[in-house]
Design brief:
Elements (H helix, E strand, L loop, with lengths): L3 E2 L9 E3 L12 H4 L2 E4 L6 E15 L5 E7 L5 E2 L4 E10 L5 E2 L2 E5 L4 E3 L5 E2 L5 E6 L11 E5 L5 E5 L7 E6 L2 E2 L3 E11 L1
Antiparallel strand pairs: 1-6, 2-9, 3-4, 4-5, 4-7, 7-17, 8-16, 9-15, 10-17, 11-17, 12-15, 13-14
């Protein structure tokens, strides 16, 4: 059975696509520090980004019913094929002004498969989740692929979970000062 160490999955790049482009200090050390700061040079706001991962543990309660518990991943946690992980991306506006159009692009880690319909973002005006199946070049709400049938006819079908390469979490038109927004999604270890 193949075992994968969380450390060997590779650094998950947390990329914030903001209306301003600048350096995001601390992103290289996101697994060590747990957060990064995105700051605008114009008086708009300051966003602290955080990525957390949890492993799904299925337990039985006293009545024998299955119960899902999420265990935080820390250090060199080992995950096995079939394990389900939940990633939580948080953006906290630490500034005194709103931040507009905060969007975070998150790659699906190698060796993982996106769990369809598992993504959520805070309900906010304009909040939206889109996906990429082409390495992050384009994003759509419902990715599709062309499938050639045995008779030669080509059909458009929903993309399979294995085709998903990135998820884009758009947190809405504006994040008020001193507010935190969150987005979650699940993946399964191959």
């Amino acid at each position: 059975m193949k075992r994968v160490s969380i450390a060997s999955i590779g650094a998950i790049a947390l990329i914030a696509t903001l209306p301003f482009i600048g350096e995001i200090p601390g992103v290289a050390n996101i697994w060590h520090s747990g957060s990064a700061i995105a700051q605008n040079t114009q008086p708009q706001g300051q966003v602290q980004l955080r990525l957390d991962a949890e492993k799904q543990i299925v337990q039985k309660d006293k009545q024998g019913k299955q119960k899902v518990v999420w265990q935080p991943l820390q250090g060199k946690t080992v995950v096995n094929p079939g394990d389900v992980l939940r990633y939580t991306v948080s953006g906290e506006n630490k500034g005194d002004r709103p931040v507009k159009n905060l969007t975070i692009n998150q790659p699906i880690p190698q060796g993982m498969v996106y769990k369809l319909k598992s993504a959520n973002v805070n309900v906010n005006k304009g909040a939206k989740i889109t996906y990429s199946i082409d390495g992050g070049r384009s994003f759509v709400e419902n990715p599709t692929v062309k499938v050639t049938l045995p008779n030669g006819k080509v059909e458009i079908r929903p993309a399979p979970a294995t085709a998903y390469t990135h998820i884009r979490l758009a947190f809405g038109e504006s994040i008020p000062a001193k507010t935190t927004v969150k987005g979650t999604y699940e993946v399964q270890v191959r």
